[in-house]
Amino acid sequence: MSRPLMKHDTREKIIRASVKLFAEKGYKATTIREIAKLAQVNVALINYHFENKQNLYSQVVQDNWHWLDARMKEIALGCGADSNLFATRMFELLKSNSHQAMNSFKILLNEDIQIPTPLASGPPGGQYLLQIIRDEVGEKITEDACQWAMQAIFAQVVHLGIMTSSVIARNNASTHFSSQNLKLHISLLVKAILSYIKSAPSGRLL
What we know:
Distance between the termini: 61 Å
Oligomer: single chain
Radius of gyration: 20 Å
Number of helices: 10
Strand content: under 5%
Shape: elongated
Order of helices and strands: HHHHHHHHHH
Helix content: over 70%
Mean pLDDT: 83
């Protein structure tokens, strides 16, 4: 029983060190030796578990994508056809896990290496928001309009959720970065976007 546990612990140490370095330095600038040093393991162990840096990076990307996707699935429960409720819960999730969320998006948005194909279809959790939007606006709205609404809402909520942990927000004592003000901003944004796609002729954007 102890040997599999030790292997799991070693693998997790390597993953945690990789997340930190890939987020801070990017794929190209991070070396296997640096990961090994931070994880306090030897290079041979990294090669044993992942074979090479590209496989390790792919695993880190998948782990971060699935972590975000699972959290988004959890917050979608009980939202019904309420896009504003989902967006608010998403903001609270990102705000309360801002450091991990920021590292996750840094890794997912890295341009040095291609994201594994199964993950490239959309943002983690985007499908849950998309379905809620579909349920809320009805069948007359085109799929393109719903997709656009999902992407617009998702991008803004991610931006605001991560911004709350930034140096700018921490050093700004004004109410501009308060949770209450940002939630109001999100609520108005969601209403405006959904109102726009519902009022567009034949549910089309242009």
